[in-house]
Design brief:
mainly beta, 9-stranded antiparallel β-sheet, 12-stranded mixed β-sheet
Length: 537
């Protein structure tokens, strides 16, 4: 208050105008060496998980951490106007309802040109169960982890540990000659999410083949073009995609433009560079598929460990760049000035299989946690030697008081109080035949409460909506019972990391099957709401 009174009586310059809200957005591009295209049966990687922003700013905030896009592999040029992939990962999204500064993980499978997408069991595009565009696209496989519809929570306080994940196909189903009654086939690639974290390891959930082939039933020309039958392209882009970090801009009395960005963090290793990406690995079908296929055919039991001998790991040579821009309100977003990233960040190869960033630390500040650094918060729009304008980092003390940037406050976060709920009609696949045990409740680290039930695996809603006959679902049930008896949660499936410490998922997500339901049953979340509100309803 005293500061503003001083401005009013002329002791300090008054702001020329109020700062205008805008955003910072763009990509961090990570080059890596290609592998042979025969390693086309999935991938795994370890990526750093950390709080990108100092505090959660609200529902406009959307950013991934480092991740990739897994597309179908084609022998020649990919079909035109045919976007489909798996592009989930760690991050924050505009439809995240129970967000904290700790990231969550989603699966992010996309069917033809975003007509549908699936983020996990019971989660996908929108929440309209009358038109479930992707809500039934993922089936729960693990009997030890519950999957909240808002995303898989990481342990609160995660700050730079490595989250290990990957997708490999499993032959859980058999190929089908017809899809939804039409003369188009559906393959049997059940792309399965495997995790390697400090407190959980193993397969969690898989995309049903029908999630991909459904578009073929509607247009037979698309038959055979999706991940239900196609291998994966091993040479994938690795990037960090940011769509919105809050920012504000203002001019001083001479017309110079300045910007301020919400405090943005990156991992800090103290001495040396923190690993951001580690061990991007591509697999052949011999790494897991072939063994499991023989096992299901009556062969030797398989441990589930993915063979590193049947893989190829991408290498790094350093390099890479940023396309981060701070948009000028009312300006052309296509040609918005870029942040002068190279003034404080140099991408490097920490070793052949590990990627990181060497920081110009005098331009960064240390947070209260030694595990993360804060990137420059203030910038001046400057014409560079190449005649392009860039946002050059400056110290807080270099910001003219009349801009009002230092005193300005970013808006308080807005949140929805609406819970995630699933159908309650007696005739729905959630109730018929329905669960075998529950309800059970868990309080999660994001302050939400989930309600879940135990379903017989083949009776879970996703599989009742997967274009499978009763005999086909029963055959699938027997295969999953074999997996549940054999693939326990405490040993490695993905090749273990050789650098860094592993992150943990929220301990509240780890459950134990009720007695008598240890094999062939899975936990399915039916509701997620704010904890305080859940108790009142």
């Amino acid at each position: 208050m005293i500061h503003f009174l001083a401005m009013a009586v002329g002791l300090l310059p008054m702001p020329q105008n109020q700062p205008q809200m805008t955003e910072m957005a763009g990509y961090l591009i990570v080059p890596h060496e290609p592998v042979d295209r025969s390693f086309n049966a999935g991938f795994s990687m370890y990526v750093s998980a950390w709080p990108l922003l100092e505090s959660y700013p609200g529902s406009d905030f959307q950013s991934g951490l480092f991740g990739t896009w897994m597309f179908p592999q084609f022998e020649g040029e990919a079909p035109k106007d045919h976007y489909t992939d798996v592009e989930g990962g760690l991050g924050w999204w505009r439809d995240t309802r129970f967000a904290t500064k700790t990231p969550k993980f989603i699966m992010g499978g996309v069917t033809l040109n975003f007509a549908e997408w699936a983020n996990g069991p019971g989660a996908g595009k929108g929440r309209d169960w009358a038109n479930p565009t992707g809500l039934y696209g993922v089936a729960q496989l693990s009997p030890w982890v519950i999957w909240p519809p808002d995303g898989l929570n990481l342990k609160q306080g995660t700050r730079g540990e490595l989250f290990g994940y990957g997708y490999l196909p499993l032959p859980l189903t058999k190929p089908k000659a017809k899809t939804a009654g039409k003369d188009v086939p559906t393959g049997n690639h059940c792309w399965t999410l495997f995790l390697n974290t400090a407190n959980f390891k193993g397969p969690v959930a898989f995309f049903t083949p029908y999630f991909w082939s459904k578009a073929s039933a509607e247009n037979a020309k698309l038959s055979g073009l999706f991940l239900d039958s196609r291998p994966s392209e091993p040479n994938k882009a690795v990037q960090m995609e940011t769509q919105h970090i809050p920012a504000m801009v203002a001019k001083d009395r001479t017309g110079v433009t300045y910007a301020r960005v919400a405090p943005t963090h990156f991992p800090n290793a103290g001495t040396g560079e923190a690993p951001l990406i580690h061990q991007i690995t591509a697999y052949s079908k011999a790494a897991l598929w072939s063994q499991v296929d023989r096992w299901f055919g009556g062969g030797t039991r398989v441990s589930g460990a993915i063979s590193a001998a049947e893989s190829s790991t991408h290498t790094f040579k350093g390099g890479g760049y940023s396309t981060w821009q701070i948009y000028l309100p009312g300006g052309n977003r296509q040609n918005a000035p870029e942040v002068d990233w190279t003034s404080y960040a140099t991408p490097i190869a920490i070793d052949r299989h590990t990627y990181g960033i060497r920081w110009q630390r005098e331009l960064l500040s240390q947070t209260t946690s030694p595990a993360v650094l804060t990137l420059p918060e203030y910038y001046r729009l400057t014409k560079m030697s190449d005649d392009k304008q860039r946002w050059v980092p400056v110290k807080q003390g270099d910001i003219p008081a009349e801009t009002g940037l230092v005193e300005a406050k970013f808006p308080a976060p807005t949140r929805t109080t609406e819970p995630y709920v699933t159908p309650i009609e007696p005739s729905s696949s959630w109730k018929k035949p329905g669960p075998v045990a529950g309800p059970f409740k868990r309080n999660l680290g994001d302050s939400s409460e989930v309600t879940y039930y135990w379903y017989r695996f083949a009776d879970q809603p996703a599989l009742q909506n997967a274009d499978l006959t009763v005999p086909e679902r029963e055959a699938l049930q027997k295969r999953v019972e074999q997996i549940h008896r054999t693939w326990t949660k405490e040993r490695n499936y993905l090749p273990p990391n050789k650098k860094g410490k592993l992150a943990s998922i929220d301990p509240a997500l780890i459950v134990k099957p009720p007695k008598g339901y240890e094999h062939g049953y899975v936990p399915i979340v039916t509701r997620q709401g704010w904890r305080s509100l859940s108790r009142k309803q």
